[in-house]
Amino acid sequence: MTLNGHQDFLDSVSKESFQMRPRPTPPASPRKSKKKGDSTKGSENDPFYFENIGLERLLDGKETPEAMQLRHWEYERKWSQMLSSVEKSLLIENSASFNDIVSFVDNSYSSNEIETSFQAFGLPYREIPTALVFTGINSPDNELLFTQIAQRLRETRSDYVVMLQSKDCGSLKMTMKCLNDQVLDSMNDYENQDEMNDADATDEVIFDVENDKFAEGHLQRYDMEVLAEWYEDKRKKNNDADFWKVSFKDKSLSAKVVVLIQDFEVFDPSVLEDFIYICSQYQDRVKFVFLLGIATTINALQQALPSSILNSLRMKKIQLQNSERCLDRIVTAVQVENHTGIKLGKMPYKYLHETFLLYNYSVSSYISKLQYAVMHHFFSNPLSILAGIDDQELLSRLSILSEDHLEAIRMQKSFMKYVEAQLPDSDEVRRLLEDNAYLESLLPRLIKGIEQYHKKFSIAFEFLWILQQTLIDYKDPKINVDRKTKHSLYYLAIQEDGGLCDAYHTQKLLVNLKKIDSSCLSDLLQKCLEFLYTNHYANSCLTQEMSEIENFSVRLRDIEQTFISSKNALFPLTHGEEESTNTLYTILLEQVREFFDAFFKYNLKHYSTVTLHEVVYYENEKLLKHMFSAHPRAATQKALDTCILYKMYLEFGKMINMYDWLMAFKSILERDGPIDEKEIQARFISGVTELQTLGFVKSTSRKADHFQRLTWAR
């Protein structure tokens, strides 16, 4: 379409058009079945497999296919290990809360609970056991938490677990159908019985007690009577024919229907009110247990449901750990205790850390960014095949390294600093830069040095954490210590050029260490020794430091014993002897401070001081921002077209000629140079459509090539 044919163009402005493409005809099935092992998916033997997954040949295209395959395999292995560590950390962090939930479900129909609510208070109805699970404000994390709760409940018990989400429960009918479908489907999962017929919500069904099947009949699929009859039949089969003749409290060990409502605040209150009321009416036939996920406060529950419904719930509060505690666990597992995996460098960690604290507060978003960083590190760094491997694997990798790999090693900044440190020995420098065989023989020691740095760093980091917590627990008004989380401490460790040892927080802790008494010092030394005893690396490589701390502990006990003996003695210590004892304690305290100061300076150095740290640390912050942060400039540039059209709109009268408007818009856009006509037309249509949506203009039947102006401003 050209500008000359503007009449046709004006007829189509802001009108939608749809293109209906025919569905592709599926290929005819082959007469002969495929042989076993054939697959339509690509395999690593396919020459285009790595290109299809985004893996490029690095080193200016000189990288061998074997090295490419290793990078891909190492990425999958390393991320699998890191993800397993993260999930384990989250489970440990929430284990206490999960245990409370499991215990609540198991004991929800115990005799004590029933007697308390039903007989002791003389209630005319039985309350539904309800756990109020306070999850926090981040919805994506809540979905992950409730999935873990559901898995935990399904592991070792026969309860039927149902998860209801607001997106699937827009009405009472849909809510009841979701409940029935999930419970009845769980019957097939647990007991592998006959499959149910897939019926729509409007299909009528009836339960056949003897055959465990549904057939068209009297009951709707969303009728609670379907679930009640099915549940009663399962209970009779699992016990005996006279099951329902026994008292209600004797049935506490049977299966329950646990209903997880993940996003309580998003549910329609009227739907929840009717749903809870119906469940309470069937409480004598079906054992319901509710788990309500509340992101805010209990006021949301009180405002959403009337008192008549709240009275039918026997509620208990359960608080899950907040997201910041979970982040502490993740950072400790991935960045501190992970000695062989990939780590975030200074700027990427700063971006992830600040995004978490200042924007979304989402653990799942943090994990997604972390996975992308690990993937890009292996997909873009040819030296990543040397990251986090043991001695035996390292020897086999050396045979894969080409001359281009060795040149890439020599180009790393940390290796250049290492060479500069060897300048007094000119022969050593020459061999490092020219002798490939010598460099290969040196690589195992350099790679092993990275792992040793991480192990020593993790021990020193834990010592610093123990020192901080001990001073905080001391609660002396003379000691003023900032309470920092582990992820904040690690943020200081990689942001400070001198490392965490030179950070103001560390120096402040060491100054306050000189103000503690003997009991606090004894507690500090004992905690450090307990940590060293349980650390395998410390037992083998930090024996000298361990013996020094043990010596401090023995000397402290001797000083304390002197004070105790003087109190029980017939003739107490003189003033001079007491001052001498205090001097001994002061000297010991100063020696302990000097020990920690030297230990921190040696082991909490910045990672950039380690040779070939580029093999392990990911440094590309710009790519992470590009992939995970919003880009307002594109939206602003798009909005500029609407702004230009609006400025011209203010100059028009009641009727706006579309062609004149388009030509004026074109003249402004082409001030800096010619632009393609189709692009101008597309941008014009987009801007006019936005103005029409905002209510500034509308089409008119009086003139086909005109728009009517709807607003007037001075």
TrEMBL record:
Subcellular location, principal: nucleus
List keywords of the entry alphabetically. Answer: DNA replication, DNA-binding, Nucleus, Phosphoprotein
Which InterPro entries is this protein grouped with? ORC3, ORC3_ins, ORC3_N, ORC_WH_C
Q: Where is this region: Disordered?
A: 1-48
Task: Offer one example of a GO biological process linked to this entry.
Answer: DNA replication initiation
Q: Does the keyword Metal-binding apply?
A: no
In what residue span(s) does the Origin recognition complex subunit 3 winged helix C-terminal domain sit? Answer: 633-712
Could you tell me which residue ranges the Origin recognition complex subunit 3 insertion domain spans? 400-620
* Annotated Origin recognition complex subunit 3 N-terminal domain residues: 11-386
Q: Would you tell me the Gene Ontology cellular component terms?
A: DNA replication preinitiation complex; nuclear origin of replication recognition complex; nuclear pre-replicative complex
Entries under Pfam families matching the protein = ORC3_ins, ORC3_N, WHD_ORC
Gene Ontology molecular functions? DNA replication origin binding
Q: Where in the cell is it found?
A: Nucleus
**In which family does this protein belong, per the annotation?**
Belongs to the ORC3 family.
Purpose of the protein = Component of the origin recognition complex (ORC) that binds origins of replication. DNA-binding is ATP-dependent. The specific DNA sequences that define origins of replication have not been identified yet. ORC is required to assemble the pre-replication complex necessary to initiate DNA replication. Binds histone H3 and H4 trimethylation marks H3K9me3, H3K27me3 and H4K20me3.
- Assembly: Component of ORC, a complex composed of at least 6 subunits: ORC1, ORC2, ORC3, ORC4, ORC5 and ORC6. ORC is regulated in a cell-cycle dependent manner. It is sequentially assembled at the exit from anaphase of mitosis and disassembled as cells enter S phase.
The name of this protein is Origin recognition complex subunit 3
